[in-house]
Amino acid sequence: AQSVTQPDIHITVSEGASLELRCNYSYGATPYLFWYVQSPGQGLQLLLKYFSGDTLVQGIKGFEAEFKRSQSSFNLRKPSVHWSDAAEYFCAVGRTNAGNMLTFGGGTRLMVKP
Amino acid sequence: DGGITQSPKYLFRKEGQNVTLSCEQNLNHDAMYWYRQDPGQGLRLIYYSQIVNDFQKGDIAEGYSVSREKKESFPLTVTSAQKNPTAFYLCASSMLGNTEAFFGQGTRLTVV
Fold it and tell me: Quick check: B97 and A98 CB within 8 A?
């Protein structure tokens, strides 16, 4: 069965600093990978997705992620964090047997220091 | 505007009562999903439906029921059999195949 691990429960960075959120997955086939962001008490917004092709994918709000098959990783990055990026971030892998059921990691809560 | 609407945003229920959470989408998506989110945890799949009048159990279906009588609607009933129903519930929808899922704003259910 597939699984997703986000090793960092909380991360604090200073505004303007770079950011990397880690995600490791376990899946037997080619994974379909996603990063979502959630503000408190809100639903999830898609940041970016990887289905195939270029392993470096660009998303909204200046985020990017790199798929590394050899490391089973899909880390999220941003070169310069803004205070508005404070939120919870979820990595997910899609189950490819039709539809798009997702298996989620436990999430990483990002705090941004002024 | 196209999107997914969940209602109500907050819901309180007494122990032993069933309660139904509403989810409506106007994105013309075939597939709809219910997830449960607990503090500090990721989302877990409760039920999903890929076509009208058909649905399947997800990973934590016990104590929940759903129906899919219309393409746009996928209500979730939390029954009295659900032992720990207090949680944040998120509805999502997607096209069939490997595309992204779109999420509603969630319903926070509290058992009092």
Answer: yes
> Is the Cβ–Cβ distance between B102 and B24 less than 8 Å?
no
Which of A14-37 are b and which e, b meaning 16 or more Cβ less than 10 Å from the residue's Cβ?
eeeeebebbbbbebeeebbbbbbb
CA atoms of A67 and A77, how far apart (whole Å): 12
Collapsing DSSP to helix, strand or coil, A70 comes out as: helix
Task: Using an 8 Å CB-CB cutoff, list chain A residues near B109.
Answer: none
At residue A106, the 3 state secondary structure works out as: coil
B23: which DSSP letter? E
Nearest 10 degrees: Cα torsion B26, B27, B30, B34: -70
| Cβ contact, residue pair B94, A96, below 8 Å | no
Query: Are residues A99 and A32 in contact, defined by beta-carbon separation less than 8 angstroms?
Result: no
Q: What is the pLDDT of residues A26-79, one digit of tens each?
A: 987 778 899 999 998 889 999 999 988 889 999 999 999 999 999 999 999 999
B50/A96 Cβ within 8 A: no
Mutate to test the interface with A, among B23, B51, B91, B98 (most CBs of A within 10 A): B98
Please give the radius of gyration of chain B, using alpha carbons only, rounded to the nearest integer.
Answer: 13
Q: What is the pLDDT of residues B66-75, one digit of tens each?
A: 999 999 999 9
Residue where the block lists tokens 């409506």: B24
How many contacts (CB atoms, under 8 Å) link A and B?
A: 73
Element (H, E) at B110: strand B107-111
**Single-letter amino acid code for the residue at B61:** A
